[in-house]
């Protein structure tokens, strides 16, 4: 599928802001939500409106204001709002059955066959699928699987990582605040530095960052006095998501694969945010010709229906009954949507557009960076792109408050864009992969306006 005006998915002439934000109808909804719902919400603090409906890469609030969606429900809507293939699959399934646990249905079998046909590297025809519900659930199950097959409890994760905050998997998520909130012990998790070129604290030249990281991991594994128990699995994001859309050097994932092979350690690749075409390949690992032992899939696989999967190599399939439970695993609606989504995204012309427009976007952001003192770094692949905001480019001091102001300025102008990163100072582009060219260009113009406005006030 290509995106042209003849088959436009989004609302024309977006953005269109007609009222003060939030408008009066949105305020009514917000007041009810504040009265009844938890105060621990975060997104409502900066996207201060109530949504009526979405269409393609646009969202309409209760007052008729139309926003360009560069948020995508936190990279959940790779095909945007109301994609006809997804809607058709959901409508067809909802008339058949909406819930049944584990037993085969047409939707389940179609999903399994379709997923198998697009798996990366040596996984195709050599893997099993474990159904889960959310990204965190998938990562939790993946870690449990690695521990079970290796008979070693310690899992190595990376600085800047995010693998979920529900249950024990919070130990693999590097932000200590989440671990404090969850009340779970971080026992049996250790961390290695992620190769973060813009802020890497090692001694290496940029081209040697991966080697320095791998050397540190080798020392943790091989030195009996390193303080690290025997490692039973390594979990890694091939491009970090919440950590800041950090693209490691191209040699990092292959070198990590070699280390895992050398020491017989299961390699878990978390494609929850980088997968389903987000970086211009169906899976980010395909850029590196690396096959995971275990792979986590979620977010965009369900098109908004909570669903996830763990794919693992057949040799690991010696699991006891009820190894990982959950009433809603493999929901038929999500499975139907997932098969339809994979059929759209697997198309090479579709993926080529993501790659080419992603390069265009990188160039546009770099042009804005050249005239800005607060954009420290521009990075990304495909539609997984970040601009890291700093107080000034010389000091690289994180511009966390500045990023919040940029997000707010864009929201008032009609573009939804969210932050991420170690310091919450990276603006991330995670629009639907189907976004039309004019919504990219309008969004970039508004981004540039927000940057200039924020610089004047800083």
Radius of gyration: 22 Å
Biggest beta-sheet profile: 7 strands, mixed
Strand tally: 15
Strand order of the largest sheet: 4-10-9-8-7-5-6
Bulk shape: globular
Examine the coordinates and then state which fold CATH places here, giving the name of the CATH topology of the largest domain: Aspartate Aminotransferase, domain 2
Give me the secondary-structure category.
alpha/beta
CATH superfamily placement of the largest domain: Type I PLP-dependent aspartate aminotransferase-like (Major domain)
- Poorly predicted residue ranges: 1-5
Any chance you could write out the topology, listing elements then pairs?
Elements: H1 24-36, E1 51-55, E2 58-61, E3 66-69, H2 72-75, H3 84-94, H4 106-117, E4 127-132, H5 135-150, E5 154-158, H6 176-182, E6 189-192, H7 209-222, E7 231-236, H8 252-263, E8 267-270, E9 294-297, E10 308-313, H9 332-345, H10 348-370, E11 375-381, E12 384-389, H11 400-413, E13 415-416, E14 418-420, E15 426-429, H12 437-457
